[in-house]
Amino acid sequence: MFDSVQVRFKHTKHWPSPFANTREVPFVDSYLTVLKSIITDINTEYFWFFANFMDLKTVDIDYIPEQHEKNQIHVWYNTHPLGGTNKEGNVFLIPTKAFKNQCNDIQFLRDFKDINYHEHPNLFQNWIPKTAFKLKDPYKTYYESEPNYYKWLHNKDIDKKNIPNFFPSFWEDVKLYTWGKTNDVILVPHKDNIKQFYDFDRIVHYDLDYSSKLMDIVFLSYDEPNADENWEKLKAKHPRAKRVHGVPARTLAYVTAALKSETDYFFAVFPTIEIDDSFDFTFQPDRLKEPCHYIFHCKNPVNGLEYGHRAVILYNKQLCLDTKKPGLDFTLSQAHTVVPTLCGTSHFNVSPEISWRVAFREVIKLCAMKQTVESRYRLKKWCELGKGPYAELVQRGALDAIDYYEKNKHDQDALSLSYELDWLKQKFNSIS
Questions:
Q1: Least confident span in 18-22, 29-33, 82-86
Q2: pLDDT tens-digit profile of 59-98?
Q3: With contact defined as beta carbons under 8 Å apart, do 125 and 166 qualify?
Q4: Contact between 257 and 315 (Cβ < 8 Å)
Q5: Percentage of residues of the chain with pLDDT beyond 70
Q6: Structure pTM?
Q7: Which of 65, 160, 311, 345 has the fewest other C-beta atoms within 10 Å?
């Protein structure tokens, strides 16, 4: 009887060993790492080495290699159509002396000089569960579904028939696997305390063809004189666009837009933006990142700045609904990512009031945020006299904001008033 070693993986059904006196060892890093840790304790010419998620009842445990096979690693792998065929299997008969001679000179188990692969159509292994995730929060699905040594996650909007016939290899370090241009199929190993799938050390990606559901487009307008015209342009080019109009409270406006959206993310388009023809409304959120908002760049025609101010934003619907007290900025109050792609030009200087309030509002935020070289530069540009219609009102709004901030910088409630359109209207009327 040869020695035997069973590798125990956490969070999977454990199959009993068919051998007497089997040693159990935890899985660490890779099979090669485990083998190096136990090889000095092996006392027989060969030894069996297998994972605890394998049922060995159909394996010939009395197998004896032929003379010409004596220095080969013998590995049995599943060839069943539902087994995720992978020649780098999980049941081995290993020649002890030959392995000792080579183990310190190879980087991966597959580098062993001579490996004999045995096909086995009835070799049973625990199947990896498949769970659909909602795009708004794939991590919630990952954590709330039952733990498993690996689990398949797939976007609920794609057919799970797209999941490939694949089984991970443990012949090298554990990895996260992704498929498709938007990573809508993910094979995830178990790991505690991750914030996003990028927290895994190794990610391997494969091509896979499927169609991705487009995100809704929501046009948010209040009293802008060019709103109707820009809405008609947007609707003509993107028929899936929807509109939210006349909601004075900014938080309520974003929540209303989120409720109007039928997708887990939605593009928010503001009425002052002249959208570039090249802007891509097929953009998709990164499935491997933590749920967040995506802020694009927009050009300011008055001062020439290009950053996220008044730009198109791809909002995470759930994060919008969860935002109750946003502070000075609704978008920045949640996790967000800047996408340095120009979405268009914001022609906000369409009336005296709107020109002033947009500048006032933005400069309050610039004053309140952590100061950097970039934020100070933007603040400087807002306070300079720009060009175009109502440039003087834009500058006036910026200077009024600095004055207001200096007087109220320790009063958060006073600063938060700059977020409300009705208060801004009253403020403008009081100084005009």
A1: 82-86
A2: 999 999 999 999 999 999 988 766 667 899 999 999 999 9
A3: no
A4: yes
A5: 99
A6: 0.89
A7: 160
d(CA 133, CA 155): 5
Question: Is there a contact between 111 and 69 (Cβ–Cβ < 8 Å)?
Answer: no
Distance, in Å, from the CA atom of 231 to the CA atom of 243, rounded to the nearest integer, reads: 8
Q: Check the CA dihedral 260-262-266-271 and report its sign.
A: negative
Rounded to 5 degrees, φ, ψ at 339 are -110, 105
Q: Helix, strand, coil % (nearest 5) of the chain?
A: 30, 25, 45
The structural domains of the chain, with segments of one domain joined by +, span 3-125, 130-206, 214-348, 349-432
pLDDT at position 259: 97
The CA-atom distances, in angstroms, between 62 and each of 59, 254, 391 are: 9, 68, 88
Q: What is the largest CA-CA distance in the chain?
A: 99
Query: Does 117 score more than 70 pLDDT?
Result: yes
Q: Which CATH class is domain 214-348?
A: alpha beta
CB 262 within 8 A of CB 213: no
Rounded to whole angstroms, the Cα distance separating 240 from 65 reads 65
Instruction: Kindly indicate the confidence band of residue 220, based on its pLDDT and cuts at 50, 70 and 90.
Output: very high
Q: Which of 78, 32, 74 is nearest to 54 (CA)?
A: 78
Tell me how far apart the alpha carbons of residues 2 and 46 are, in angstroms, rounded to a whole number.
Answer: 6
Q: How far apart are CA 2 and CA 291, in angstroms?
A: 51
Q: State the Cα–Cα distance between residues 131 and 140, nearest whole angstrom.
A: 12
Burial status of residue 396 (CB atoms within 10 A of its CB: 0-12, 13-18, 19 or more): buried
How many CB atoms within 10 Å of residue 142? 19
The 8-class DSSP code of residue 21 comes to T
> Left (φ > 0), alpha (ψ -120 to 50) or beta: where does 262 sit?
alpha
- C-alpha of 207 from chain center: 18
Q: CA nearest 260: which of 314, 325, 216, 319?
A: 216
Q: Which residues of 245-266 are buried (b: 16+ CB within 10 A; e: fewer)?
A: bebeebbebbbbbbeebebbbb
Tokens representing 432 are 């005009």
Overall average pLDDT of the 176-202 stretch: 93
